[in-house]
């Protein structure tokens, strides 16, 4: 029997069991990721790649990709290679972010960081290995019922989301703004639209591309994902203040220590939460034309602001 407490009520009044959905999808993604990287010679690098990739994590990006593909009329099979690639790319960015040259963190996903276990040299290469494998995976594992034109578009989107116009650019400005307590809201938005929202946007939009969404639908998906992307980061900043290391699986209170301007440092916690809620409402508004087919994406948007890690 399904516990009714777990059923989220969407604005339309329909009910959707998000915890059961997330659990099933996390299991699906974990199994696909596990079989994506067999350990062969030189074992050390494959073990280092697997260590961070299979260390848990919410799997939000692959789940968004699969849910979007299905909402547009595609299947899980069409999107699973891209979903795995998104998690590989996200994980590689976490490995590099944790390096002593960047955020210098000892814990991630409740475990020692990659460089703490394998050393900095192998951690850099594990990130590089995941980055390369992600693109290979999309190119070679997307089934033939997805036209090659769509596969090329997905590869282009992923490259853009990762590079200087995305995560890399956001990280550069983030590193530059450390210790600068006069960082403006404009700069903060630039950092997080690139560091966090770009990959969430690619997750949603690539799901749509694989299912051959119309350009009007791609625009809706883009607005949905940009809104949830910023809300995701606002909540991340709040959790850095309010959650424990055990809940987060990584060091808590890091932003204050690194003298970083954050949304709660500019607006306070309550105002930040209210802005995140407004963004989620705007995001869900974009999905209205999809009716009940949008239930998973609507529920995931609400999960983003209600999560505790
Ligand atoms: C992309 C080529 C390339 C290099 C990396 C280091 C770097 C450039 C970028 C930093 C990107 C970064 C770490 C952004 C933070 C994004 C974020 C909010 C992470 C937390 O995501 P969750 O909560 O984590 O989904 P889990 O562990 O649940 O997957």
Characteristic key phrases:
disordered N terminus, single chain, two-stranded antiparallel sheet, mainly alpha, 309 residues, binds geranylgeranyl diphosphate, Farnesyl Diphosphate Synthase, globular, 69% helix, 3% strand
Your description of this structure?
- By secondary structure, the protein is mainly α.
- Mean pLDDT is 94; it is low at 1-7.
- The chain has helices at 18-36, 43-53, 60-72, 76-97, 114-118, 120-141, 148-162, 167-177, 185-210, 215-242, 245-248, 254-257, 263-267, 269-285, 295-306; strands at 7-9, 15-17, 107-108, 111-112.
- It is 69% helix and 3% strand.
- The protein is built from 15 helices and four strands.
- The structure holds geranylgeranyl diphosphate.
Summarize this structure briefly.
With about 300 residues, the chain is mainly α. The chain has helices at about 20-35, 45-55, 60-70, 75-95, 115-120, 120-140, 150-160, 165-175, 185-210, 215-240, 245-250, 255, 265, 270-285, 295-305; strands at about 5-10, 15, 105-110, 110.
Q: Strands across the major sheet, in which order? A: 1-2
Kindly report how far apart the N and C termini lie. 27 Å
CATH superfamily: Farnesyl Diphosphate Synthase
What is the C-alpha radius of gyration, as a whole number of Å? 19 Å
Mean pLDDT: 94
Proportion of residues in helical segments: 55-70%
Main beta sheet: strand number and arrangement? 2 strands, antiparallel
Low-confidence runs of at least 5 consecutive residues: 1-7
How many alpha or pi helices? Answer: 15
Shape: globular
Give the H and E element order: EEHHHHEEHHHHHHHHHHH
Hey, roughly how much beta strand do the residues contain?
A: under 5%
Number of strands: 4
Q: What small molecules are bound in this structure?
A: geranylgeranyl diphosphate
Could you please say which CATH topology applies here?
Farnesyl Diphosphate Synthase
The count of domains is: 1
- Structural category is mainly alpha
The CATH C-level class name? Mainly Alpha
Second-tier CATH architecture: Orthogonal Bundle
């Amino acid at each position: 029997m399904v516990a009714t407490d777990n059923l989220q009520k969407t604005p339309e009044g329909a009910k959707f069991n998000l915890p059961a959905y997330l659990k099933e999808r996390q299991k699906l993604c974990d199994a696909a990721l596990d079989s994506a990287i067999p350990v062969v010679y030189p074992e050390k690098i494959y073990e280092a790649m697997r260590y961070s990739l299979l260390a848990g994590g919410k799997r939000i990006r692959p789940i968004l990709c699969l849910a979007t593909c299905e909402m547009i009329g595609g299947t899980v099979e069409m999107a699973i290679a891209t979903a795995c690639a998104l998690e590989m790319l996200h994980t590689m960015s976490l490995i590099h972010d944790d390096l002593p040259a960047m955020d210098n963190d000892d814990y991630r996903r409740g475990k020692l960081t990659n460089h703490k276990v394998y050393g900095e040299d192998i951690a850099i290469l594990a990130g590089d290995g995941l980055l390369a494998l992600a693109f290979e995976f999309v190119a070679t594992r997307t089934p033939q019922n997805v036209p090659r034109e769509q596969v090329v578009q997905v590869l282009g989107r992923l490259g853009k989301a990762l590079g200087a116009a995305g995560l890399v650019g956001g990280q550069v400005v983030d590193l530059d703004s450390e210790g600068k307590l006069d960082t403006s809201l404009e700069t903060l938005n630039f950092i997080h639209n690139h560091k966090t929202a770009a990959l969430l946007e690619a997750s949603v939009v690539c799901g749509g591309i694989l299912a051959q969404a119309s350009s009007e639908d791609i625009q809706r998906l883009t607005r949905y994902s940009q809104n949830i992307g910023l809300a995701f980061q606002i909540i991340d900043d709040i959790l850095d203040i309010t959650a424990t290391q055990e809940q987060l699986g990584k060091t808590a209170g890091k932003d204050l220590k690194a003298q970083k301007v954050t949304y709660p440092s500019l607006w306070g916690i309550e105002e930040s939460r209210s802005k995140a809620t407004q963004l989620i409402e705007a995001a869900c508004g974009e999905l209205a034309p999809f009716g009940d087919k949008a239930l998973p994406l609507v529920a995931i948007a609400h999960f983003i602001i209600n999560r505790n890690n």
